[in-house]
Amino acid sequence: MELLQFTSSPLLHGSSKFINSPEFYKSKLSNLKKPPTTTFRCCNHPNKTSHFANSKAFENVTKNLVIRASKSAELETAVIKKPQSQRFQVSKGYPTPFGATLRDGGVNFSIFSSNAVSATLCLITLSDLQENKVTEEIALDSFANKTGDVWHVFLKGDFKDMLYGYKFDGKFSPQEGHYFDPTKIVLDPYAKAVISRAQFGVLGPDENCWPQMACLVPTPEDEFDWEGDLPLKYPQRDLIIYEVHVRGFTRHESSKSEHPDEKNSIIGLQSKGISAGHLILCRTSHFVPLVKEIKHLPPPNPQNDSSTSILFFDLSLRKDLGINCLELMPCHEFNELEYFSYNSVLGDYKVNFWGYSTINYFSPMIRYSSAGIRNCGHDAINEFKLLVKEAHKRGIEVVMDVVFNHTVEGNDKGPILSFRGVDNSVYYMLAPKGEFYNYSGCGNTFNCNHPVVRQFIVDCLRYWVTEMHVDGFRFDLASIMTRGSSLWDSVNVYGIPIEGDLLTTGTPLRSPPLIDLISNDPILRGVKLIAEAWDTGGLYQVGIFPHWGIWSEWNGKYRDIVRQFIKGTDGFAGAFAECLCGSPNLYQGVPMISMGDEYGHTKGGNNNTYCHDNDVNLCTLLISGTLLTHECESLGLSDFPTADRLQWHGHAPGLPDWSDKSRFVAFTLIDSVKGEIYVAFNASHLPVIISLPKRPGYRWEPLVDTSKPEPFDFLSSDLPAKEIAIKQYAPFLDANLYPMLSYSSIILLLSPDENA
């Protein structure tokens, strides 16, 4: 028990006996027209006070107090009744670190909530969770179990198959930004795994899309053998990035998975040990698609009981296509059934396929694990670690696509799952009357530059680097992270007032505290940091994102211009040429291949297939190929090409057409390896015969022609019929001509002319 002092209020003044009955307070409070304001002062924290200005909050506090009158009747002394449990030894705990943490032979639970008036720790066994039951509730005392704005408790006992969550009470006043509901069990933002449904796309009990979720409790057995794994630390300029969606890459039947439970999982990302020279992307649908080579690793465990596995890449993924970095589309916990509804057009069901709707930022997507909820999520965490470890063994870095711009809780009509029920007005960007700012286009905006929230984001990123060994992050709608937080105050953020600082909520900041914190963090500044430098509120920062010298950006201008030209839009020939050679405006970037680009996957013109769990989003072909940047030095320059090595052409050599109607761009590049290469793009709906630059003593030979059927679209050195294919071009090449079909591109190499 701990002693507490508080100053006397009219309600208690003159008391000279034990007052231990809640009915006493109820009777006194009922006689007051206005609830009294009572100030409590802790003996061990004499400068810390708590104010309660409503009868419900006051009653909750006084239930646990035994009050004694002092001789002067001016100072009362209280004894706190500590939380009790039938299963665990309970003590007050520690305010840091946040989350559930192993220490001193037990588990410390700590969570921030500045506006809640009471907190309850809910302990739930895995079996009770599936029956929507709470195993045990431990009410936290607002004095013994609270330090500042942090609630905490320490437990010792048997946590086998045990999960947890919280209940918070306080105001439910949306117009003031508060959504406290003591009937809701909410998730700890710092939880390391979130458990609910076991299988991807399978409804919960009673066809519930949102069954109760709960958080993983750490155990001493949570160990993983990294086998000395260390970060690869490739220079960013040397990366070839492959953007991949776990389920989309692993679910199709062409994945050749040994076990059906690997489909849609991390295990599905494992590699096959096949000969170099062939890229075989083995696809199931889970996490353990681990970069696995059969001759080095055993096959997956047939006892796996999940419906989704991680990703298989073979060694030649790097050797042939040159890929040395995977960019995983969202792998944080999300609910794929968020949009669940019947699609009468396609005859299937809409789901949240892409996953840009985060529930928890520390938890890997459990249903991307072949282990599913087995072992309360511990095995799923290890599956993700295995993916990273095996990728590193094969020289492949892993970058995560993270969504710190909004959460799944949406606007005021959204569910209360975690952040909203813990402290809504802190975690979300709100207008003065509680409305949600919507710079994300998804209903809410994460309050990134609030001191508590920005520290949360940094803690999360550090966890994925230090515990999960990822090599970097791509930040979705990163411009939101540069906007001023709710109730912006330069003194609160910087410690001093700033002259002329009249910034309002959401205003773009020249020196955003969050970006500053990440950029100067001793752990994070050494990993890849990639910004999607815009948001849906109109903030577009491509080329001007506050990068602190270490951030890079998605080149949206490049993407948009290339799309416009390739699909045949007038007026983009000059801009497309600028994209090809780079410029100070567009800059020269790191190549990134989207999943399916390697075989020309099409989505039929739909550029927002977020809700389609079908062939539109599934990688469907096995492919082999070679990355030309390894063979052609000129396609991987570290600086902008100059006229000394670059020459532009049109249908005739040296005569480029930059008019608005032009749909043809061609150029030659001096190459230290190949001598010279010729590249041309015909974005017209009409075919054309082009004249090639004359090079005495040499002749042009085809390497790539996208209009030809596979395998003759790429005449690699190991193609058996290569010589026969080249002879078919001879009548044109002998005349220094080449026929190009509509919507096609070619690459020609300069070779010595043996007949010259």
TrEMBL record:
This is Isoamylase 1. The lineage of its organism: Eukaryota, Viridiplantae, Streptophyta, Embryophyta, Tracheophyta.
